[in-house]
Amino acid sequence: MEIKALSPGMSSSYLDAIATLRVRVWSHQLKEKAFVENKWWDKHDLHAFHWIVLNENSELVASARLSTHNTVVELPDFEEIKALLTELPSPIAMMSRLVVSPEYQRRGIAQKLDVARLQKATQINAQSIVLQVPAYRRKAIKKLGFKCIGKAKEETFHGTSNIDFFLYAKVHSLD
Q1: CB 60 within 8 A of CB 25
Q2: Residues 121-171: pLDDT tens digits?
């Protein structure tokens, strides 16, 4: 499998496929307001770095993004995490929208995408890195040096899906 790093702007040709993959994998959990025409994307996709994973047939099977921001209020889904954050050193990188097709899960793809995004955050001199993760990813994120800030208020997913999201942060001065 091939992992491709895409710079902002360069990723626009892939955004449609990424947005479609997100809905295909998460549609049973997403509230309908989260997506339009079977695609889930937001304005941050346009300025973010993206990573995609292609299988042996060049089909998209996973993706992840890293966006950068000057203040916490600019973060994606800020309304869901604002009770947990007041201020962080900037620039702030947010790792988000990690999605892996079910048939490719449990193969270490998520970990590789996490590492790629952390390397890029370091390369662009991010002073803080934040991400929201479901409970089942907490252990993997802690291994990467992230500290849990608290349980996030998740409005994009159905409450009946029993998915609790937690906000994690890694601040440069903690390293």
Answers
A1: no
A2: 999 999 999 998 888 888 999 999 999 888 876 655 545 445 567 778 888
Phi, psi torsion values for 83, nearest 5 degrees: -70, -20
Residue found by looking up tokens 């994998």 in the block: 25
Structurally, how many domains does the chain consist of? 1
User: Among 58, 45, 44, which Cα is nearest to 13's?
Assistant: 45
pLDDT in tens, 80-89: 787 787 788 8
Give the domain CATH number at 129: 3.40.630.30
Pseudo-torsion of CA 26, 31, 35, 40, nearest 10°?
-30
* Domain extent for 88: 2-174
